[in-house]
Write a structure and sequence with these properties.
Elements (H helix, E strand, L loop, with lengths): L8 H8 L13 H14 L7 H15 L3 H14 L18 H13 L5 H13 L14 H8 L2 H6 L15 E2 L10 E8 L2 E2 L2 E2 L2 E7 L5 E6 L4 H14 L6 E3 L9 H9 L3 E3 L1 E2 L7 H15 L9 H18 L7 E4 L5 E4 L8 H7 L13 H8 L4 H20 L6
Parallel strand pairs: 2-7, 7-8
Antiparallel strand pairs: 1-9, 2-5, 3-4, 5-6, 10-11
Length: 413
């Protein structure tokens, strides 16, 4: 840099006015620039200059280095205090870690217990673990944002804790309905569907009967050997009796296991409205279909299970699965909006996520829907008997024992 002839303040001022023909170039890297600033301050005895002359030196440094006046003011302040201007590269990204390795391990364990639900559901579980069940281990995770939850799931620490592999799911055929029920905000209108647990060598597997209430998403899963009247009718009676509120509507697809005289007589006896599918209306039974995927398939998978294990599976359902999904598993509850053209749209907000039992309690005058022998005091005691994680842990342990018992035997019907 050709600046050796700039030795006085007058020469600097002339240079800044454009009257000086000295060739110059801005120094390359940050270390060179900092060194140039220091040498210039020493050369012109900056500390002893007047206010006007200091301004000329600063203008000169702005032009030569490309730094802003504010940045040069900070560098000159550092020179004034220490007599040095050194640049030290940053050794960290500057962001302190809020969530520890223990938090990530706890998140991985929680995901494993609950079969890796969506981020909103895990956040709600962490909040309930800290706020409702006083588990201090979830203190930091209770404030975890949903977006950062997925960041933690994508971290190497999380991936070392667990890896998840899922099979490609088959495309489901849409099922229409002839009449769509209109519960008008009242619980008791259930949607029901059958899930078949696969074939093996032309031998049918066990069947799962899945019933879901439209308003509260209160859900009952039963398992039977076959879907004939002999096996299905006792289970349907038990299922209808197990809901804590009065059943007002029963909705199914066009399967012959439900569209028959015996089922119709049972529903008529209990004064329950019976509706069935309409053609070209695939969304009418979407709730039951979605629960088949998110609950039944997630718990039992897609592998063939022989029919002779139906009794053991049904016992597992009543003792572990049904209490877990109704009292400990958060669900989305959509808010329906209608635009000016009459088109309805469902919005799923995190604030509206809760367990089916909490949704039932949140209804206006919820006690009026309960059966006479049921009260919220009894249900509260049952719901808070164990924590969400404890219920999930017992479910996973029981499922592991059940599958060990089933799949160590030959796969025969």
């Amino acid at each position: 840099m050709t600046t050796t002839n700039l030795k006085t303040i007058e020469a600097l001022e002339a240079f800044l006015e454009g009257n000086q023909l000295t060739a110059f170039a801005v120094p390359g890297n940050k270390t060179q620039r900092y060194d140039f600033v220091r040498k210039t301050l020493v050369k012109f005895s900056y500390m002893s200059l007047s206010k006007k002359d200091k301004g000329i030196v600063i203008r000169y440094l702005v032009k030569m280095t490309g730094y802003s006046r504010q940045q040069l003011t900070r560098l000159i302040g550092k020179y004034t205090k220490t007599g040095k201007i050194n640049w030290t590269p940053c050794r960290s990204n500057g962001f302190a870690k809020k969530y520890t390795h223990q938090d990530i391990a706890l998140l991985a364990k929680t995901d494993e217990l609950h079969d890796t639900p969506c981020g909103q559901a895990v956040k709600k579980i962490c909040e309930r673990a800290f706020d409702v069940f006083d588990d201090d281990n979830y203190k930091r995770l209770s404030g975890l944002s949903i977006s950062h939850l997925y960041n933690l799931r994508d971290s190497e620490r999380y991936k070392k804790q667990r890896r998840t592999f899922t099979k490609t799911q088959a495309r489901q055929v849409a099922i229409g309905e002839r009449k769509k029920p209109y519960p008008e905000g009242k619980p008791g209108y259930i949607r029901i569907d059958t899930v078949h647990q696969g074939d093996l060598d032309k031998v049918k597997g066990v069947y799962h009967i899945n019933a879901v209430d439209e308003i509260t998403q209160f859900e009952i899963v039963c398992s039977v050997e076959k879907i004939s009247e002999q096996y299905l009718m006792p289970v349907l009676e038990q299922m209808l009796a197990s809901f804590p509120f009065t059943i007002l509507g029963f909705h199914s697809d066009n399967g012959s296991e439900y569209i028959n005289r015996r089922v119709a007589q049972l529903l008529q006896k209990l004064f329950i409205e019976f509706t069935k599918s309409r053609s070209r209306h695939s969304n009418d039974n979407a709730l039951a279909e979605s629960k088949n995927a998110s609950v039944v398939r997630k718990i039992f998978g897609y592998a063939h299970i022989p029919q002779r294990w139906a009794t053991e599976i049904n016992t597992f359902n009543w003792k572990y699965l049904n209490p877990y999904i109704n009292y400990h598993r958060p669900c989305f509850f959509p808010k329906t909006t209608t635009d000016s053209k009459g088109k309805q749209r469902k919005i799923y907000r995190y604030e509206d996520m809760m367990t089916p039992y909490d949704k039932l309690k949140s209804l206006n005058d919820a006690g009026q829907y309960l059966k006479p022998e049921v009260s919220f005091e009894i249900l509260d005691e049952y719901a808070l008997k164990i924590s969400d994680n404890k219920a999930a842990s017992e479910l996973q342990k029981a499922r592991k024992q059940l599958f060990s018992l089933i799949f160590k035997h030959p796969k025969t019907g």
